């Protein structure tokens, strides 16, 4: 009986270690942005501060990327990113990207449409606009993913 408990404990430890290793694994994200956009580079810094491995691509026309991957005009912002098969559009907080990757919803991606003040990369002192992170699918259905007051 004791041997079974020891073996179970060892299996549990190995399983727990593997889960922890997967959670702590750095996540690569590809960001497409214009060289002239200062807020985009601040958002990239936000991602790096939150342990993302950022592949930063400077492009002449970000709209071409948005069109190719089906980002609706109503979801558009100044930069477009890709992580584990999802589109991340605009100034989405890193914690929402992590939530997306954890929950794996059946969506094309998530967006912070426009450029609300107070989002990561759009900080302007203490001023913060309320905003929503919105998910969107292939049929242009939208849902509130997260809300910030």
Topology:
Layout: H1 2-24, E1 27-33, H2 38-49, E2 52-58, H3 62-68, E3 80-83, E4 86-90, H4 94-103, E5 109-112, E6 131-136, E7 142-148
Descriptive account of the structure:
It is built from four helices and seven strands. It is globular. The chain is an alpha/beta fold and 149 residues long. It has one domain: Glutaredoxin. It has a seven-stranded mixed sheet with strand order 2-1-3-4-5-6-7, with helices on both faces. β4, α4 (94-103) and β5 (109-112) form a beta-alpha-beta unit. The longest helix has 23 residues, at 2-24.
| Relative strand content | 25-35%
Secondary-structure element sequence?
HEHEHEEHEEE
Q: What is the 3D form?
A: globular
- Cα-based radius of gyration, to the nearest Å: 19 Å
As for the CATH topology, it is: Glutaredoxin
Main-sheet strand order equals 2-1-3-4-5-6-7
- What class do helices, strands and sheet pairing give? alpha/beta
Largest sheet: 7 strands, mixed
Assembly category: single chain
Task: Count structural domains.
Answer: 1
Low-confidence stretches: 16-22
Annotated CATH architecture: 3-Layer(aba) Sandwich
Q: Mean pLDDT, as a whole number?
A: 89
Annotation field: number of helices: 4
CATH class: Alpha Beta
First-to-last CA distance: 55 Å
Question: How many E strands?
Answer: 7
For this structure, what is the CATH homologous superfamily? Glutaredoxin
Please summarize what this structure is:
It is built from 4 helices and 7 strands, in the order H-E-H-E-H-E-E-H-E-E-E. About 5% of the residues have low confidence.
